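## Example pair
The file below holds two records. Each record gives the amino-acid sequence first, followed by its structure token line.
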Amino acid sequence: MARKATPSKSPTARRNAAPGEHYRLEGTYERLRRALISGPDDGRLDQPLSYWVRPTDRRLPIAFLDRPIRELIEEPLGQLMSTQGVGQKKILGFFDLLRRVIKAESPHTPFGMTTETLTTDPAARRGVGVATADVSEAVWSEWCEAIVRAGFDQHPLGRVAPSLQPLPTVIWNKPLGEYTALSLSEIRSLKTHGEKRVGAILEVFGAVYEAVSTAALHEDLQLDLTARFVPRVSRWVQQHAPRPHRLSWAGVADQVAQPLVEQIEIDRGVSVASLVSQRLGLEGETPSVKAQAERMQVTRARVYQLLEDCAGVLNVRWPEGRWLLEPLAARPGETDPEAMGLIHALRSLFYPV
């Protein structure tokens, strides 16, 4: 017996919810609309829907993301659901975003956090106490505004990064300002900016935001962000440059070389720091590059490449070191030969001509 063909449902029909479910959606939508309309008029409704999206969100109504929330909630639910590509699941995702807008204390207070928490909890300032993957456009906007306001938008990423290991070398010298002018979605659309690179950038911005937002700024004082070794080593070098006869190998090793090696460990790892320490003779007689390559089980070319990377680290972390170290090497006849040898080794390794 032949079976009757069942007419296929149209895409619109498939998107429509069952009558009971439709009434439930209508009720939810009206409650959310009323809450938003009666809420504070602080600009949150003028933000596009994408402003409240996190990278981990799913079921997003893509067609709505670029539209202001105020414009969206002026439309009846039926009209929204008739949008191509928007069905019941996408509408539920839309509702989740509207709830996020309602619960935020302000357009600049990340969802789920209170103003008090943001003021007192440094972890919250770094990224709302969540992983960088959860940083929303609202959080990103707050970070960027604070960084620009504090005057750090021209600082290179590498100079203010907690560690250079997650950052690709090609963006070490890129100013923060090249990103503050962009939204997160625009950054993610940039060529070569996958999630790993974006995550590394967010870590830097979160750390800088924490520093500038918790600092007690004064109009007559300037805040600076550098690696921890920079002020101490710079002061020591400047104090001893006029008195080269008082330099000793131990003093240069303890006050200059060792802090630089420790920074290399932070930025390039333990094995590279050990390589540098040996090249400077801090662990005894300086081994040959061949011996170091064999110990590390790499080629000599790789050893030279790692040492070049270390020079790149110091050029972004302490670029003024090139000129600060120069006076120490200017009067070799007045300086202890071993101390002078270490100074030349530092300059040759970290600031090659």
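Second record, same layout:
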Amino acid sequence: MGDFLRKMRFSHDPLALMGLLIMLLSLTYIVYSFLPHPTSSPNILEDYVKAVHYLNRSSAALEGRLAGTKSMDFSINDAYYLRNRIQGYFHNLSLAYGSDSTFSVRVARNYLYVADASTNSTAAYYIDVDGLREALQLLSLCKVDEALEKYDSVEENTSQALSNVVRAISVLSRVDKNSVAENHVPIIEKSRERLEKVFNSLYNASMLMEIARRHREYIKMMCSRRPVNSSTLDGMFMLLSDLNRVRATGPLLPEIMSARNALESLIQSYLQQRRSCSGNTSGSGAGYAPPESDD
């Protein structure tokens, strides 16, 4: 052994010493990962708690961001790093116990769901909500082309945020309440409620902008107060039917309601004008009788 150490010349070759140290640390990690009761590690428990904290904070921050406030005390990289750590716990525990039905493995899997949801919720936080809000406000002011141009610039970002929120909600629906700490259950449920509100708000805002795009010419005609004809009326009724599907809800409720109400008011104004014109036309002939014949 002495000859081996002399040959390695550790005292004169720090790189060789570092290489051996790295091998020893790697071996220690592998052995530790397969210990019979790795869930006793405080790091694992701390990471489980942190996953719930990240979910709670990210869902609250996302809801607040849509409402006009910004507050996030960790980054997307933090969320992904934690998620990968918990995935490592789940993988190692599955191999160590050889069964996904073991309680420790089930716990790891469910906290992995929580961590997955938090990464998606955190990713959705970076939505360009200011651009979406501006598009809705421009639409409510009858600036149709400007509104749709602004929406075009944020549509992909909005769609990605919606996808992130949907994935977060979906993965949270798989959490088994019996496999997470009891005091974590209400936090997880509250986070899911927030995410559902965010989804409904983003979905309806996007739907409203899509409706505006589909009925662009009719809306521009109404905004410019141009006269209507029978074919235009058909388009208005279709627009009104589409608007009835939009629900002003969630953090973007004021902007959605303002834009939807503005469009509905335009339609009602035109329909009222049409009825008034029809009434005047029919009224001018009311009581008319042809003159008596001289015969």
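Notes on the second record: Residues 35-274 form one domain. The first helix runs from residue 2 to 8.
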